[in-house]
Amino acid sequence: MVESQRWIKDLGVIKIIYLLVVFVIQIVNCLPDVRASCKTVPNLTKSQLDLCYKANDVTLAAIEGLELAIFECQHQFRWNRWNCSSLKSKSRNPHSSNLFKKGYRESAFGHAITAAGVVLSVARACSQGRLLSCGCDPNAHRRSLSKSLRDTLEVEKSRFLDTIIDNPFIIDKRLERNFGLDTNEVVSKKRIKQQLANRWKWAGCSHNIDFGVEFSELFLDSREKAGDLQSQINLHNNNVGRSVVERNLVSKCKCHGLSGSCQLKTCWKSSPDFRTVGKILKQQFRRAVLVDQSNFGNGMIIYNGNNKRRKSKSANFRPSIVQNEMHNNVMLPKRRNKRNKMENSLFYFQKSPNFCERDTLSDIAGTHGRRCNRNSTGSDSCSSLCCGRGYNLVKEVTNQRCNCRFHWCCYVECQTCEVVEWISICN
To answer: Could you tell me what this protein does (predicted)?
Structure first.
């Protein structure tokens, strides 16, 4: 009798173990295949695939950043001869384009905008809690932060408080009462700053941009291993794109307290709008710097002072070698202000074609069939886009909603109207 009860008990344990094993197998089968998802994006290098296998969620966020970069590039160059069609491919990887193998000014912009897109996409995914390897709030792991990052947080806090104190409204007697100060007392800015600092708390998702920058370096810079002129310029342009995101972080704050009294203020650094990043990079594209290879045979980059678009006031700069983790040797002007401008400038080493005719080897679509503005004199004009080939007027009929009326309650009723427009199409 005892043995039968023991056998029944053991059988129950075996059933429980069996059900647990079946449950675990079902969960594993439902999980996405990491290797399969990584291989859906072609033209990734071996190092990028290895990174994808180790950090699949972050890599997929980086791929989203590449797509974001393509869309922004198309917006910024929608009225130029080159309209970023070279970067748009079925592979979702703009680096598969032959244009990235060139040293054109447009190639420089492509490298910069994709690096910035990866930074922004990964940082946002981190702040939204979509990544297992990244946390949102630095205060949650404040002790694990590096000393440099803690110091940076304190510097940002001090700058923000100085900005607030310089506002005359802050010195109002009513706010002094909220600080617990005597209304008849002459209050110094230093004391008000101290009172504000005691009620300050860093929170939110500050400096998650650092995680995005680090992953962008791992993911994109790993493609450049040759150490030649083109690889060094690509690395430089990648850094330019990332630095634009870093330099344009936005401070956001949220007040806490009764009736919005702001007894406690929570502030964080937020990533900039990508449209802003695109506009800045478009300006840097116009001021891009033509560089040459040094005659010393060591692969160093030197500034070409004869660049027509960016003439130097002095052609006799004494170059100083700047060591960088990602660059080998880059020779920049010794003057600090000129050197800073160079570090934030896009580099290219090949004169761009006119992009008028189709060139499949370079992934240039040409301007045949492009829409142009016959009333404009800018880059969107028919004389510029059509490259002197002329244009045809095409009648375009579209259906649009019109004569909309609001009815109580509550719907909107519209009619459908035909809109006829004559558009200009390049020959």
So the answer is: Ligand for members of the frizzled family of seven transmembrane receptors.
Rounded Cα gap, residues 382 and 391, in angstroms:
7
pTM: 0.69
- Residue 204 CB coordination number (10 Å): 20
**Residue type for position 395:** K
pLDDT tens per residue across span 128-161 = 888 877 765 444 444 445 566 566 656 666 766 6
Task: Detail the DSSP E strand segments found in 114-207.
Answer: 200-202
CA-based nearest residue to 118, from 243, 39, 212, 244: 212
Distance between CA 145 and CA 132 in Å, rounded? 18
Q: Is-contact 196 161, C-beta < 8 A? A: yes
Residue 373 gets which letter from DSSP? B
CA separation for the pair 427, 411 (Å, rounded) = 46
CA–CA separation, 382 vs 390, rounded Å?
7
Q: Which tokens hold the place of 187?
A: 């209050």
Look at residues 317, 311, 310 and name the one whose alpha carbon lies nearest to residue 333: 317
Mind listing the pLDDT tens digit for each residue in 352-406? 999 999 998 888 999 999 999 999 999 999 999 999 999 999 999 999 999 999 9
Instruction: Characterise 274 by phi-psi region: left (phi > 0), alpha (psi -120 to 50), beta (else).
Output: alpha
Round to whole Å and give the CA distance between 367 and 158.
Answer: 53
For 284-322, the pLDDT digits (tens) are: 999 999 987 653 345 555 555 444 443 333 333 333 333
Name the H helices within 31-79.
34-39, 46-54, 56-76
> Bridge partners of 425?
371, 392
Cα of first residue to Cα of last residue in the chain, in angstroms, is: 97
Tokens of 412: 């909107």
What domains lie within the chain, and their CATH numbers? 289-345 (no CATH), 367-426 (3.30.2460.20)
Neighbours of 126 (CB within 10 A): 24
Measured from the Cβ of residue 372, the count of other Cβ atoms closer than 10 Å reads 21
